[in-house]
C-alpha cells in the first residue's frame, strides 16, 4: 500500500522536497485516507499496516522518514508508540511522531508515557488543519 515508487509519490516528493511521512495504521480504509490526504499536501507517503511493514518499505527508498503518524492500537497487541520507537531506532530518535487514537479505554498513564517520549496524542476524528500544522512545523527545521 506504499506510495514509494509510484508516479504519484514521485511528483509529490519533488513538490515536498522529498519529505517522507510514515503512516502506520492497521485499518486499510483509514490508511488509504491518510495516504491520499498527505499526498494531496505534497508529501511522499510510506503507508503501512505495521511497524515491520513500514521498516521494510523504508529500507527500499533512499529518502529518510521525516514524520511518523501511528494509530495507538495496532494488530497483534502492538501499539503506535512502539511502532514509532522502532522507526526512530532505525532512522533517528529525533523524528517527530504523533499517536492517533479513537479508543476511549486507553489509560491516561499510557497517553502520558507517549507524550513524555515526544509523541503528541491526537484523538479521532483528527482535525486536518491541526495535522497539517504539525507536519509544516516538523519539516520547517528539516
TrEMBL record:
Lineage: Bacteria, Pseudomonadati, Pseudomonadota, Alphaproteobacteria, Rhodospirillales
Residues with the 4-aspartylphosphate modification: 71
Protein's UniProt keywords contain Electron transport: no
Domain Response regulatory per the UniProt entry, residue ranges: 20-139
Gene3D superfamilies cross-referenced by the UniProt entry: 3.40.50.2300
Pfam families according to UniProt: Response_reg (PF00072)
SUPFAM superfamilies in the record: CheY-like (SSF52172)
Annotated signal sequence range: none
InterPro entries (UniProt xref): Bact_response_regulator (IPR050595), CheY-like_superfamily (IPR011006), Sig_transdc_resp-reg_receiver (IPR001789)
Keywords assigned: Phosphoprotein
The protein's name in its UniProt record: Response regulator
Record's keyword annotation contains Phosphoprotein: yes
Domain of life of the source: Bacteria
Amino acid at each position: 500500500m506504499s506510495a514509494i515508487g509510484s508516479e504519484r509519490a514521485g511528483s509529490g516528493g519533488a513538490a515536498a522536497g522529498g519529505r517522507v511521512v510514515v503512516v502506520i495504521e492497521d485499518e486499510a480504509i483509514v490508511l488509504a485516507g491518510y495516504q491520499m490526504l498527505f499526498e494531496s499536501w505534497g508529501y511522499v507517503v510510506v503507508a503501512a499496516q505495521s511497524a515491520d511493514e513500514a521498516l521494510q518499505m523504508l529500507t527500499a527508498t533512499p529518502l529518510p522518514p521525516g514524520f511518523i503518524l501511528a494509530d495507538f492500537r495496532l494488530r497483534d497487541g502492538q501499539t503506535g508508540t512502539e511502532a514509532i520507537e522502532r522507526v526512530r531506532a532505525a532512522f533517528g530518535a529525533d523524528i517527530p511522531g504523533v499517536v492517533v487514537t479513537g479508543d476511549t479505554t486507553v489509560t491516561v498513564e499510557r497517553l502520558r508515557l507517549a507524550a513524555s517520549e515526544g509523541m503528541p496524542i491526537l484523538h479521532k476524528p483528527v482535525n486536518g488543519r491541526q495535522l497539517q500544522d504539525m507536519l509544516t512545523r516538523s519539516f520547517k527545521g528539516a
